Amino acid sequence: MAKRDKKKKKMKKSTKITLITITAILVFVVGFGAMYFYNTLGGIKKDNISKADIESSIDNTVKEKYDDSVINIALLGVDRRSHDTGRSDATMFLTVDKKHNKLKLTSIMRDSYVSIDGHGKDKLNAAFAFGGGALSIKTINQSFGLNIKDYVVVDFGELANIIDAIGGVDINVKQSEFTETNKYIQDVAGELKKSANSLSAPGMQHLNGIQAVGYCRIRYNDNDFARTDRQRAVLVAMFNKVKTLSPTELPGVIQKISPYLETSLGASDILSLGTGVLKSGVGNIQQQIFPIEGLDNCKGGIASNGIFYFKYDENALKKRMQNYIFEDKDAKNQ
User: Fold this and answer.
1) Domain named Cell envelope-related transcriptional attenuator: which ranges (predicted)?
2) Residues 6+ apart with CB under 8 A from 287
């Protein structure tokens, strides 16, 4: 019984996907006038972070070398409880690369060992607990040489509702993932005090919100890298699903989704960014995870304090990430 309780405790701290940022960028402007857009986004929680403080976290060499043709936005999935801020157990960022006409979705391992301003060295996901989205952005910029100025965050408790709002997602559940996915589906249903159907077989299938969250949370049959791959698979599936919605379906979907999102982006920022992406005609998302196993001396292990971290050659990883994000070089072959 104790073992099961321990497992459930770990499960609750596992991946809580950030989501629908692609939606916010791509679909809010399709088929609607600007006035309707502003009215519909009224339900999104706006965080008025200090832009000057964020700017100070961007290295001057980054500002000098790279212009605004490559925009990066942090995507944070958190597990908020009544007594704390929560940790960003899913940390990604979306790259809108107007220079190379690409969209990229990049994950950073939550156990990456980084310096957090005012808090010393810790896991990347602790930055959100210490200072919310603003400190998360600063930590990513300072650790990896990026130019992130804004973020979007969603709480795990609202993920299933958002996936249901867009009508579910299509996911290929592997044979090796099937049994664990069903276990987590029932655990998620119990946490949300709802009923849920288990999957009848592995393979490509349509998942509702609870089923998709269960799929994302499995972690004991492989490793953290595979778990992060599942995060991105669901996010991309959501993007693909939203692209299929008709103009008549969008108003209701947007109104359902808006209350579950928190962002530092203003409505005009989202509108401008979305319009630019739509004009570019970019439809596919390139995916990557950092650090990369076997490169930049990336090693995971338990430190003297008994906590697991991913450590790596910080300068080498920063250069690799900048080359990939800003120069569009292959992430592995540089």
Assistant:
1) 87-243
2) 104, 105, 106, 107, 232, 236
